[in-house]
Amino acid sequence: MEEAAGKDGEFVTKKVPSSIKDERLIKKRRDQMIKGAVALFKEKGFHKTTTRELAKASGFSIGTLYEYIRTKEDVLFLVCDFIYEHVKERMEAVIDMNETGMDSLERAIRSYFQLMDDMQDEVVVMYQEVKSLPKDAQDYVLQKERDMLHMIECVIENCLPEPIHEKDRKLLANNIFVQGQMWGFRRWVLQKEFTLQSYTERQMHFLFQGLSLSEPI
Question: pTM above the 0.85 mark?
C-alpha cells in the first residue's frame, strides 16, 4: 500500500483511486456512498453489508460503484475520513483557540458536546468499524482524532487560571473527549435520564469540582 501523502486529499486519492477523472463528480458520488453507508453500517455492521446493498443505498448500480472505489474497505475508509474531517472542521468553527478564562472553556465543552449529539450516529459507526481498516488507513484517520484532542488540550491550557502538569492536561482532554462521545455510545440509558443540557451541566460540574475551581456563572 502506498505511503500517506503530505496532504489529506492526496492520501485519500492514493488510498481510494477512481477510474473517473471529474473531481466534482467523484465528490458527488462518494458523498452519496458515505450517506448510504452510514445508514447500512449502523443497521447491519460493516461485515454484513454487501457491496450490492451499498450501491443500492447510494442510488446507483454496482457497476457505477466500482468506478469510484475498488473494495468495500474503500467505502469504510471514505466514511471514517469524512466523519473525522467533518467533526474536526466543526470543532475549529465553534472553538476559539485564542480565548481565555473559564467561560471560554465552558463554551468549548458545550459546543463539543452539541457536536457529538448532532453526529452521534456517525461517531458510533466510525468507532465500531474503524478496526476493519488496513493499518495505514487506521493511522491516517486516528491522527485526525489526535489533532482534535490537541485542540481541547490547547483550550484547557489557555483557559485554566493556573497551569497544570502536561500529563494531567492530556488526561483531562481525553476525559472531555470521551464524555462527549459517551452521550452517543450510552444513549440507550443516558438519554432516558438526561437531556443534552442536563448531561452537559453535570459533566462540567464534576470537571470543575475535580479541578477545585468555581463553576462559571
Answer: no
